[in-house]
Amino acid sequence: MKKLILTGLLLSNLLYANNSLLITQEQLKEQLIPSLTSSIVFEKFKPILAREGKIGETIKTYTKDGLETINQVIIPSYIVKNTTDAKEEYIVTKDKFEKRYTFLKKENKTWSFFKPIGEIKVVKIKNNNDFFILAPWGEKMIVKKE
Fold first, then answer.
1. For an engineered disulfide with 12, which of 46, 59, 126, 145 has Cβ 3.0 to 4.6 Å away?
2. What is the DSSP annotation of 29-47?
3. Which pLDDT belongs to residue 145?
4. CA 53: distance to chain centroid?
5. pLDDT tens, position by position, 62-91
6. Which residues of the chain have pLDDT under 70?
7. SS3 for 2?
8. Using CA atoms, how far apart are residues 141 and 137, in angstroms rounded to an integer?
9. DSSP string computed for 14-25
10. Rounded to an integer, what distance in angstroms lies between the CA atom of residue 93 and that of residue 122?
């Protein structure tokens, strides 16, 4: 059975979608659940690189726009590196990682390739203004219209 991972971008009618307020993960989930029930389902297929994180290790996530967020390993976790041009790195707890990825092969002494297992649901962004989501680790993360 495939694991369903609820992710998505925000709709224009979000109560919190403005530059002066943050939206928390709970507020986001509350507002996205109705839209996600009828949204398109995509299968995750692109392999990622991963390695075990070290407690206390700090990871800076860079996207094509620059520094996106900073997070620290505080419980057993993996460092995931996307196989995109930006090669974004981020932290996934060991429990979540083991539910979402299966081992493919070793890349080198540090990194291994893993295949994602699961699906994602996406909701298109229709908001014209940039705004922020408060990540579980307390960091503001921007949501922008492309």
1. 126
2. HHHHHHHHTTSEEEE----
3. 67
4. 17
5. 988 888 889 999 999 999 999 988 899 999
6. 1-21, 125-127, 145-146
7. coil
8. 11
9. -TT-STT-EEEH
10. 22
Token pair 């994180």: residue: 53
The torsion of the CA quartet 7, 67, 143, 101, rounded to 10 degrees, works out to -10
d(CA 124, CA 131): 15
Burial of 16 (0-12, 13-18, 19+ CB in 10 A): middle
SS3 sequence of the chain: CCCEEECCCCCCCCCCCCCCCEEEHHHHHHHHHHHHCCCEEEECCCCEEEEECCCCCEEEEEECCEEEEEEECCCCEEEEEECCCCCCEEEEEHHHHHHHEEEEEECCCCCEEEEECCEEEECCCCCCCCEEEECCCCCEEEECCC
Mean pLDDT score of the chain:
81
